[in-house]
Amino acid sequence: MSPTILSGNEPAAAILEEIKPRVAELDPQLVAVQVGDDPASTAYVRRKLKACTDVGMRHRHVHLAAETTFEKLLGLIQELNADPDVSGYIVQLPLPGSLKAREAELFSKIDPHKDIDGFTARNIGKTVLSPDFEHLPPATPAGVIAMLRFYRIDVKGKIIVVIGQGNIVGKPLSNMLQNRGATVTCCNVHTPPERLKAFCREADVIISAVGKGKLITADMIGPDKPVVIDIGITRDEQTGKIVGDVDYANVAPLTSAITPVPGGVGPMTVAMLLQNCCTAKARDLERRRAASH
């Protein structure tokens, strides 16, 4: 029996359709900041801004040269924080050159109320405490949770392996899954290969967010046909094509459900960004009303 293909396009389209009335009512503005001309970053930003156009959301693309200094980018972040017309904004990763080493410092300066990527310590920290997204959750992990819900994959009581424990995806996603009753095994680059294989073969759900092609191979899949969620993205050096962490052709037949790359989690991230932007604008209006009384 063929696996269910967990396309992100259908659930993402449903979320975007759902937020159209909120966009019309709230009139939020999303700003995308891009530094340099990394082709993948350009493609990602284009996708995000197209989604804004599709739902009628005001948006702006601030494109800075790769040589932009830390001070200049920090100044822009402070401007966006202070601009009442900006509901939320993103700083597209990766940052080039010397800026990359100071990403954490830059993100610490983003106003958490406008942090629609969910990268700030405040918003990531709240994923530990709040299972109901009462904040601006990290967009990609929230997209995975929304995708699982759309396809009626219940994580409660399930054994889930999350490979990759980065601050943006792996760690917050592990917390979100635990908040929903899953038993989560957290693996990373230091997990011995044989242990990783053993963990995966016991899992009901395998989620990989590493960015290493063919990290998940057929011999790591157990007999009970797990669900496999592939969040990793890398470019195949031989073909130039975008691939995930999973050796898709050989792994897919052994699963009950699997995400493709591209077209899996990616569209969900975009949808959650726009949903977060609406939430940010709604919360801003609430704070203004409260302050006026």
Descriptive overview:
The protein is an alpha/beta fold and 293 residues long. The chain folds into two domains: 18-111, Rossmann fold (3-Layer(aba) Sandwich); 137-264, NAD(P)-binding Rossmann-like Domain (Rossmann fold). The protein is 43% helix and 15% strand. It is built from ten helices and eleven strands. The protein has a six-stranded parallel sheet with strand order 1-11-8-7-5-6, with helices on both faces. Strands 3-2-4 form a three-stranded parallel sheet. Strand 2, helix 2 and strand 3 form a beta-alpha-beta unit. Helix 1 (9-26) runs parallel beside helix 10 and helix 6 (139-150) crosses helix 7. The chain is globular, with a radius of gyration of 19 Å. The mean pLDDT is 95.
Helices and strands in order:
Layout: E1 4-5, H1 9-26, E2 29-35, H2 39-55, E3 58-64, H3 70-82, E4 88-91, H4 103-107, H5 121-129, H6 139-150, E5 159-163, H7 170-179, E6 183-187, H8 193-202, E7 205-208, E8 227-230, E9 234-235, E10 242-243, H9 248-251, E11 257-258, H10 265-292
